[in-house]
Amino acid sequence: MLTYTIRRLLLAIPTLLFIALVVFLLLDLAPGDPLADQPLTIPPEVREEMRRALGLDQPAYVRFGLWLYQFFVVEPKVLIDHIFGTSLAAGDARVISWQFKLPVMDVIVQRMPQTLWVVGSAYVIGVLIAVPIGIVSAVRQYSILDQIGTFISMVGFSVPTFFTGVLLIVIFSVQLGWFPSIYDTQLVVDDWHSFLMQLRQMAMPVFVLALFNAAQISRYMRASMLDNLTQDYVRTARAKGMDERVVVLRHVLRNSMIPVVTVVALGVPTVFGGAIITEQVFKVNGLGQLLITAIHANDLPMVQTLTFIFAVLIVLFNLIADVLYGMLDPRIRYD
Amino acid sequence: MTDAFSETPARPLVPEAGLPSSAAAPEVGIALPAQSQWRDVWRQFRSHKGAVTGLAFLLLITLFCAIGPWLWPVDPGDLDVRNKDVRPIYHVIWDAEAKTTWAHPLGSDQLGRDQLASLIAGGQVSLAVGWTAMLLALVIGTLVGVLAGYFRRLDGLLMRFTDLVLALPLLPLLLVMMLLFRDALRAAFGPETGIFILIVSAIGLTSWMHTARIVRGDVLALKEREFVLAAKSIGTPARRMIPRHILPNVMSPIMVSATLGLAAAIITESALSFLGLGFPSDFPTWGKLLFDSTDRMADFPERVIWPGLAISLTVLSVNYIGDGLRDALDPRIRGR
């Protein structure tokens, strides 16, 4: 198992380098000019000077190498400095966002809490809803509960998040006025009242994302439970006179969770990607919204770094899912 | 999106008449061996209520978009300045004062464009994008899958490449691609065709991987079957083997991933339009109509709800068709 993990980790390095290169080359082809939003009155020689200051006069491989160096060497140093108060990175140039004129990582760290709060809690809630629905649907297959559960999961799976989000805004914030339609990121939670405010503004985006995640995961849970319920060991357990509750919750559930756990792990990075739309609908200024504004503003270092971080998450959680699968199911042997 | 793919039957269709039918009615199974397979599939499909409703709805909405312009000959770009912000006709039921007119049964927007005509025109574009992108993804996926499964030399290379593409963050890359090639293609093919080509190829190029993996797995299993061995031993070359013996037997997973691909393509197109990186602003698609109306949805919720309903119901019906198809094509379930 350990050798397998190490081999996969080593294999992830060329994969990630290749992805970084693909993203870089795609962005390098971009026809957009990062100086396009500067005033036209700037004389051409000053404009040239500004381009040089951004490093745009260098050939592509130099810029790619520089980005790699800054991302993998300078940024970790900054992180170490931040934690231990050392000054390893003093004087090193960091990846600077053209849009904010700030280090890209600082902006990302600023935006991270919003995304983690909204998306993270939505994912946890989604899983918590999905598992019981999947269990009930499978145990009482073709019952009314199963029909309702499957229908809701089908709807949650089919209706795009931008429509559910907009629909919720129309109903709950326009007609009923229960929840605010725009997420206020300035809100500081320091007392009971502001905590309630925070809960109210999180309710709708979390609900939208949780419904979408729960729909996907409960389909898996149901299929996996159904597969296990027809196995021989279940019949044996029942034949021994075991309580149905014990059979389902101890024997079947634990075995059915194996594929579901890996699916949950695999879904974590796609949640960050899928949340781009939900963040846009509710004006949550998290990572997804940062990416969209960076794309519109031609902020290439920001787009490059964010896309690469998403790629790292995908590769990492793929690895976690495979390792978990091997750990939970002793029949799976990778070596 | 990913879960439904792995639920597809891992084993291919039985090339002979399905076992269950011959067991149930032996005399029919022997008399009509060639016809019974697809008839069985159809019978099983019909017993899935959701799938039949989905198919009916998909046909209905396709028909609505296809012959709609003849039934309702209003140009969606036409500006009816006197009738701006007209509410839908059914609004009279609860609000007699509302500004309604039979000239615009679903109302008009802030520029006086007819909403019903926009919905029809938008549906044509959304469905066309969905079908073409799905077909493109299917062709690429099947090609890669069959090549990787059939030729051992290509297997490692093609599957590593597939895994690599799967590790790419697709939605951000789609957005970047839209931004990059928009102007170039618009200059080359005109604003509408250019964006159409761009969206279709972008969606197609980012959604073929699951089909490729499923098809490869099935081809690998098929290669070990006796009928392939028999065909090989009479000297059938690969270029005849693949279309004649391999492809017909991987049709069922391909068809199931086709339905899922269609649903995903429609959603992706509307998501792109919703994020403002889709078709140009005067060119209606369902996602675009929804996006344009969100600013004034407090006053005119119907402008958001109709296109949103159209997208959701279409995707829902396609997903139900996929579910029914999967059950119908699975020989383990079919006989029950």
Automatic annotation (TrEMBL), chain A:
InterPro entries: BPD_transp_1_N (IPR045621), MetI-like (IPR000515), MetI-like_sf (IPR035906). Keywords: Cell membrane, Membrane, Transmembrane, Transmembrane helix, Transport. Residues 112-321 form the ABC transmembrane type-1 domain. It comes from the Bacteria. It is a multi-pass membrane protein. One of its GO terms (cellular component) is plasma membrane. GO terms for biological process: transmembrane transport. Gene3D superfamilies: MetI-like. It is found in: Cell membrane. Belongs to the binding-protein-dependent transport system permease family. This is Peptide/nickel/opine uptake family ABC transporter, permease protein.
From TrEMBL, chain B:
Keywords: Cell membrane, Membrane, Transmembrane, Transmembrane helix, Transport. It is found in: Cell membrane. Its main location: membrane. GO terms for biological process: transmembrane transport. Residues 123-322 form the ABC transmembrane type-1 domain. It is a multi-pass membrane protein. GO terms for cellular component: plasma membrane. The chain crosses the membrane at residues 52-72, 128-151, 163-181, 193-215, 246-267, 304-322. It comes from the Bacteria. The keyword DNA repair does not apply. Belongs to the binding-protein-dependent transport system permease family. PANTHER family: ABC TRANSPORTER, OLIGOPEPTIDE TRANSPORT SYSTEM PERMEASE PROTEIN APPC. This is Oligopeptide transport system permease protein OppC. It comes from Rubellimicrobium mesophilum DSM 19309. The lineage of its organism: Bacteria, Pseudomonadati, Pseudomonadota, Alphaproteobacteria, Rhodobacterales.
